[in-house]
Hints:
Blueprint: E1 4-7, H1 16-29, H2 37-57, E2 62-69, E3 72-79, H3 100-107, E4 110-115, E5 121-128
Antiparallel strand pairs: 1-2, 2-3, 3-5, 4-5
Helix pairs in contact: 1-2, 2-3
Amino acid sequence: xxxxxxxxxxxRSTTSVGDAxxxxxxxxxxxVPAVAAEAAETVVLVVSELVTNALRHGGGTCTLDLTAxxxxxxxxxxxxxxxAPRMRTPDLNGGTGGFGWPMVNHLARATAVTRQAxxxxxxSALLHR
Length: 129
């Protein structure tokens, strides 16, 4: 199989982050050839982080798209906010975060933020398969 794509249902709450992770696992389980366990867990972690950030900072709802390429998995999370993620100093004491976007950038081969003409943005990560 050269390319496989799926659009997961819109994610609307933080309780749906677990559903997004499950959708990713189901998507990865259907791929041939199979994705190595470590690579699969990295994809799940990145999806979890991007969906959580979209829900928290992007207007409370988002859509997740997954595409499998021969040597990579593309994750795209769409939300209503035009605000791009930013690097900031992680908060080690107050619990306000700052770890996620640097982690996503470290784990991904490439990341991109694309503002949409109709409003909002898409945050994409390309991960090793």
